[in-house]
Structure formats: structure tokens, C-alpha cells
Specification:
Helix content is 54%, strand content 3%. With 271 residues, the protein is mostly helical. It has two domains: 1-109, Arc Repressor Mutant, subunit A; 180-269, no CATH class.
Length: 271
């Protein structure tokens, strides 16, 4: 990978539109991964290295994996994670650099002749068309009337989408409105109904790791009655995709009305 610009373009609306469901920790993970990708290129498949890049410990592996699977795609042959949008922006940066290099070989950008005269102290050359007496009442040549009738040029056709972009579009189209029965059953039990398409995409990625749906629904209903999810009218309930990404069904559920100290003592007594 060639050297890229020292600045990385960030399209705020696009970023927020794709990440509003993330927690603060997941935002930090995703941003660190993007910055490293911009600087070094495709991400390694070595999980210990990715944990170091994201400033995480091994306990956070499931959260890191959730962010990777949602925003990057893995190539097993190369053992690397790819991000099609960042690859596109890197290509644009390299094109800008090459254009600047070619301009430099030609002596830089074309100079403005009037500015050159004023800087050198000389007088600009007189324009013979301006100094001639204006005795003609009609132009020497009549404008071509066909020019006014010519239509504006057609816009250039859009470049064909890459195979990766076509794959992303198909995956997005397939997710919308095509929910499975087991997902719908769990969705009914989950209290925060936000970003259903993203939740379903994460559901399909995590499905093999999940317990049976009936057990998952039971765990979800137990979380609904916890102090963490009840306070501030559910303000701190994670988005469905975030909870699935983090494998929330593996977390220890606090008993209703249980204080942190009571929870600690209960966990110690179970060891």
C-alpha cells in the first residue's frame, strides 16, 4: 500500500447514519480500527493484534468481533479484514497524489499571465482587438445559430460497481423485510425497538453462538426486570444490535432490586 494523505476524510452524516446504535465503547473500537486501516492498510486476522490496536483486553474479544463483523469483511485466504469504503477513499488519495506529482514534473500549475506581468513590474501587452477603433456596427462574422440549438451534453455513465459493492447491496436488500420467525419472536420480547435491520443482520452472524430461542427470550425477559434496564425509563437499555454483538445473553443478570454489593456476594458464594 502506498503512502496516503495525512488527513482522512470523515463524512459525518454517513458515519452517524451507520453507527447510531453503537455504544461509546464500540464507537471507540470502530474509530481506532478505521484510523489504523487508513495508516497501515487492511487489518490483520490476528485477534491479539486487533485487541492491541483497539486498546482492549481478551475479555472484550466478543465486542471487538461484533464491530469487525458489522463493518468489515473477512478474507480467510489472506487472513485480513477489509473495509470497502476506506479502500475507495485511499484510492482517491493516491490519485490526488499522482496528479500533484505530474503537475510538479510539468513545472507546477499554469501561471496567470496578468499576475506575472504585475509581479515583474512590466506592462501587460496591449490587446490589438481592444485598441482597434470600434467602427464596425456588426460583427465580422455572424454567430452560428446552430450553437444555440445544440443540446447540453449527456452526463457520463456511472462507473460500474465493484464486486464487493454489489455484494454489500445484495446483503442489504436481502435483510430488509425478510425476518425469520425465531428473530421475530425474540424481537417481540426485546424492550427497545430500534434499528431492526441492523439487529437482524447481527442476529444472522451470531445465530450459531446463541442458545435456543426460548432460552434467549427467557434471558431477555430477565434483563427487562433488572435495575440497569428499568432506570431512567429504559434509557440505558442497549440497542438490539449492540446487545447481540456483545453476546449479552452471556452476561450475569442481576436479580430485581439487587444492589451491586449483594450481587458481588451472591457471585462469590456460587464459586
Amino acid at each position: 500500500m502506498g503512502k496516503v494523505d495525512i488527513w482522512m476524510p470523515l463524512y459525518v452524516n454517513d458515519y452517524l447514519g451507520d453507527t447510531m446504535h453503537l455504544s461509546t465503547l464500540e464507537h471507540g473500537i470502530y474509530f481506532l480500527l478505521m484510523l489504523h486501516y487508513w495508516k497501515k492498510g487492511q487489518l490483520t486476522g490476528d485477534m491479539s493484534r486487533l485487541l492491541a490496536i483497539s486498546k482492549l483486553t481478551a475479555d472484550d474479544t466478543s465486542i471487538l468481533l461484533g464491530v469487525l463483523e458489522e463493518f468489515f469483511h473477512y478474507e480467510s485466504i489472506e487472513d485480513k479484514w477489509y473495509h470497502s469504503r476506506i479502500d475507495h477513499e485511499i484510492g482517491n488519495a493516491e490519485s490526488r497524489r499522482e496528479s500533484s506529482r505530474l503537475n510538479g514534473l510539468k513545472g507546477g500549475r499554469p501561471k496567470n499571465p496578468e499576475k506575472t506581468h504585475s509581479l515583474s513590474g512590466g506592462k501587460p501587452r496591449s490587446n490589438p482587438e481592444i485598441t482597434q477603433p470600434l467602427t464596425q456596427t456588426e460583427p465580422a462574422t455572424k454567430p452560428n445559430s446552430n450553437l444555440r440549438k445544440s443540446s447540453s451534453p449527456s452526463p457520463a455513465p456511472a462507473p460500474p460497481k465493484t464486486q464487493s459493492e454489489e455484494k454489500d447491496l445484495c446483503a442489504s436488500a436481502g435483510a430488509k423485510g425478510a425476518y425469520t420467525t425465531d428473530f421475530e419472536d425474540w424481537w417481540t420480547a426485546y424492550p427497545k425497538k430500534r434499528s431492526k435491520d441492523k439487529a437482524f443482520t447481527t442476529w444472522k452472524k451470531q445465530r450459531k453462538r446463541m442458545p435456543p430461542v426460548s432460552e434467549l427470550i427467557e434471558i431477555t425477559e430477565r434483563w427487562v426486570n433488572t435495575e440497569d434496564w428499568l432506570k431512567e425509563d429504559g434509557e440505558f437499555i442497549p440497542y438490539p444490535a449492540t446487545w447481540l454483538n456483545a453476546a449479552g445473553w452471556l452476561d450475569e443478570v442481576s436479580e430485581p432490586g439487587e444492589s451491586p454489593d449483594q450481587k458481588r456476594r451472591r457471585l462469590l458464594s456460587a464459586i
